[in-house]
Structure formats: C-alpha cells, structure tokens
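Changelog-adjacent note: as of this version, every example in the card shows the full chain rather than a window. The one below runs 386 residues end to end.
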Amino acid sequence: MDYQLTEQERQFQKDVADFLQEQIAPRTAGFDQCPRGEINDRMRENLKTLANQNLLGAGINDDRLDLIQVYLAGEEIARACASTFLSARSSVYLCGGALALFGTPNQKERYIPALKSADKIGAIAYSEDAAGSDISAIGTIARRDGDAWLISGKKHIVINAPIADVFVVLAYTEPDAGAETGMSFFLVERNTPGLSVGEPLDTMGVRGVPLASLTLANCRCTEVLGGAAGNGHQQFEQLMTMGCVGITALCVGIGTACMEISTRHAKERRAFGRQIGKFQDVGFKLSDMFTYNDLGRMLGIRAACALNNHEDDAVILAACAKLFASEAVTKIVNWGMQVFAGHGYLKGSDIERLYRDARFAEICEGTSEIQRALISRHELDRFQQV
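Full-length structure tokens:
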C-alpha cells in the first residue's frame, strides 16, 4: 500500500485526540453509572461539544464523504468514548451521509448544516426484528396516498431514536418488485403523526448510546430520499459498505484505549518484586495487542483510500477491514482483561467497560459471518476457471 497520511491529516488527528481526551474521555464512565433517563441529555451535550469543535461533521461534504477524515476522527472519538462515536456516527455519518450522497439539493440544505452543528440529531432506521443481515426481509411498507406516502412498520433497534429529530427510514414502496428496485428511504420528522418512539433499550455494552424501537402507523411522509422511489436498496448497500470504515475506526479506537490502560497497569502493578509487564506472558500480550491494533488501522485506512478512489476491490477491502478489526478488538480486550486479572473483572473498571463495548463490533452492520460470505463469494468469482 503506497499511502501515507499528509502532514495536515496527521495534525488533524493529533488535535482531535488532544481535545477528545480532555473534553470527552472523562465523561465516558458516567454513561455506565448514570440512570438511563439521564443518558439522553448527556449524549446531547457530547454531540454539541463535538460540533463546537467542528468534529461532528468531519469528512461529510455536500455530495461526498472523505473516508480518510471519517476514519481519523472516528478512531479518536471511539478511543475517548465508544458510545459517543456510535451516536455521532448515526446522526451525521449515516443520516447526514445518506443525505450528502443521495439527497436532493433542498434536502441537503435543510438537514446537513443542522446535523453538523448538532442543532438537529439524526438516526437511520432499517433493521427489524426479523430483518437484520437479510435486509430484504423487512416488513415496513410505504403505500401511495396522493402526493404522499403512508408508512407502516416497526424498526426494532434504532440508535439515537430517543433523541433524534429526523429519521432516515427504509421501507418497501413496491414489494412485488423485490428488494433491489422495490425499496426506498424516507425522511421522517420526529413530530410526524403516526410515528412513535418506544421505551429506551438497555444493552450489555456501549450503554451511553440512546437506543429504542421506532413504530410507524400510517405515518404520512412526502420526502423520499433523493426525490425518486426505488433506490433504497442500492443506497443502503453503498452506505453499509462505506460504514465498514467507521466500524473499523470504532474497533481500533477501543483497541487503542485498551492497549493504553493495559500498558499503564503493566508498568504500575508489581508481582514477585518486579513490574508485571516484565514477565514474558504479559509482555507478549501487550505486543500482540499492538500488532493486531496496528493491522486493523492499516486495513481501515487502506479501505478508506480505496473507497475514496473508487477502486475495483474497494467493497472487499472494506469487508476485510471490518472483519479483521472487529475480531481483533475482541482478542485485544480479552488479553487486556488477562493483564488486569481479577481487578479488571470488577464492575465499573475501565477494562470491564471496554470488554463489553468491544463485543458489539462483530455483530453490528454485517456480522463476521456475513463479511466472510461476501469475501469468499468475491474470491470464488475472481478465481473461477473460464
């Protein structure tokens, strides 16, 4: 890979890291400890803090995404607070990114500046109870009603649902046409009649993420993303492919945070008269953590570069990055827990929180099994005999 970060990109990453470690990281543990009712206000405050530093919309331009910037900012946000990363990503990268890539000029003007400034918060609603990896199985239907659409269905897990002002909702507009041409994304405002947000959902990790279901009951909508129905599946696939870069950033950010606290503990903790980091078993774990994390970063930046440049293998490189980094961070936090031993297993410790946060990566936005299926299918096609 012949790619190096520019001096401007390196400085951007350093400035972002310094700011986040000072302003966001100290608040992270509070998400695990505070009542669920306080999470919404805390997350709004974090998003506004990012926006005031022009970090919330990093890499989001009017008609394209600079995935190098998305990755660099994302890794540092995730390193400081994985929950804040996922909420910011849902609002500005997934919701705002969909608008940047596919929205009409009017839709972009109305929403993107407000999302970047955190004056509005966005969410994307696509998965359902019976439709996760198989997105074609969604049951949400939008039917014509004059110049509008009536949308009915339930989205099971929606990041930012409790605090979002606008939702990008995936629905069938022509079920008989099939997924590829029968789906559309809609822009639905929170106060639209027929739209209701469920009770907050609790999770094992990333507990600071505002999360709830979304129900639409003959929800009247006039805004199809991009102005034309039938493009939802293609838009979804493109967004999820680019999303692999973001999830890779999440993994490397968590991995970096784990590596830092594990190294610090290995220097401070003593056993049998010396630092535990001087024992080979602990030192080897730290070296493996660094190696896996650095490889994840390399794959993430490589995929971002390929997607920016529209390379032929960009989709597969993105899948490889997400697959490797998500499984790597699971190993990294497991090694970190071994370094901390019983002290790490105590509820409320940093490594215990990171251990729970990391597990999300292998199952979100395309499980490891889905990534492997995509990669293997590509390789079979690539090397088949003619």
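Structural remarks: The two ends are 30 Å apart (CA to CA).
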